[in-house]
């Protein structure tokens, strides 16, 4: 019987590739997504499509309302930054950062893992082609893994050793895409845009769209999703 693992699945490019990696490594994948007050439901529809495409039997969507706090362009009525330069994208923490989001998501994943008897949690964070989020760094992943083994009954009494897997941490977006292609990820069903149209068309101008388009161009593949604006040159 395959070992169970929790995979945080947003429906985006990185988390979908991470799910494919967990499957390829032989884990019995349990997918976890969140309706957290984000600007749109489109990414949850994408997460369901991705989970279905990989035959994931157990996919939970948890409701938490981070709009109560705000503080981010993704959870409050703040405009999503558009058409920023690569230098701007690579410097500072942008307003699309959702305060403590990965800490919150990993905490939910840890709770489910403890119930399942799972010791492996996968998250698709990336410290190279990313927008400066502090909870996408290796230091954060190592710290949360340490916490997981201190703060759970499984870790303290049962001597379980939780592992937080971040297989994309040191990969460029192009490398992630090439790997996902090898593993059979259907990127046409993924959503990366921070501000898509109601029918799911990506804006092409937000940081996430620009990084995605650049990644596909450098990987040598055509991005299969629709954009209002093509920003990659």
Summary tags:
single chain, 233 residues, alpha/beta, Rossmann fold, five-stranded parallel beta sheet
Structure in words:
The chain is of the alpha/beta class. The protein has one domain (4-219): Rossmann fold, CATH 3.40.50. 36% of the residues lie in helices and 11% in strands. The protein is built from eight helices and five strands, in the order βαβαβααβααβαα. The protein has helices at 13-24, 42-53, 86-89, 101-116, 138-150, 153-156, 173-182, 207-219; strands at residues 4-8, 28-35, 58-63, 120-122, 163-165. A five-stranded parallel β-sheet has the order 3-2-1-4-5, with helices on both faces. The longest helix has 16 residues, at 101-116.
Strand-helix topology:
Layout: E1 4-8, H1 13-24, E2 28-35, H2 42-53, E3 58-63, H3 86-89, H4 101-116, E4 120-122, H5 138-150, H6 153-156, E5 163-165, H7 173-182, H8 207-219
Parallel strand pairs: 1-2, 1-4, 2-3, 4-5
Helix pairs in contact: 1-7, 7-8
Strand percentage, roughly? 5-15%
What would CATH call the homologous superfamily?
Answer: HUPs
The side-by-side strand order for the widest beta sheet comes to 3-2-1-4-5
Shape: globular
Total helical segments = 8
């Amino acid at each position: 019987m395959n070992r169970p693992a929790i995979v945080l699945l947003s429906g985006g490019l990185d988390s979908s590739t991470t799910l494919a990696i967990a499957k390829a490594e032989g884990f019995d994948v349990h997918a976890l997504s969140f309706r957290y007050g984000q600007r749109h439901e489109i990414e949850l529809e994408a997460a369901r499509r991705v989970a279905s495409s990989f035959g994931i039997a157990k996919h939970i969507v948890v409701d938490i309302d981070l709009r109560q706090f705000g503080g981010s362009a993704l959870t409050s009525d703040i405009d999503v930054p558009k058409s920023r330069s690569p230098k701007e994208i690579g410097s500072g923490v942008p307003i699309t950062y959702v305060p403590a989001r990965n800490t919150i998501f990993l905490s939910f994943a840890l709770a489910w893992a403890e119930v399942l008897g799972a010791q492996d949690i996968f998250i698709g964070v990336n410290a190279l082609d990313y927008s400066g989020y502090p909870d996408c760094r290796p230091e954060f992943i190592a710290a949360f893994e340490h916490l997981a083994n201190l703060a759970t009954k499984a870790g303290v009494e049962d001597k379980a050793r939780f592992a937080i897997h971040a297989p994309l941490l040191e990969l460029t977006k192009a490398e992630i895409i090439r790997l996902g292609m090898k593993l059979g990820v259907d990127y046409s069903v993924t959503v990366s845009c921070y501000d898509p149209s109601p029918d799911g068309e990506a804006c092409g101008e937000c940081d996430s769209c620009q990084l995605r388009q650049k990644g596909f161009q450098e990987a040598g593949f055509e991005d299969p999703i629709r954009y209002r604006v093509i920003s990659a040159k």
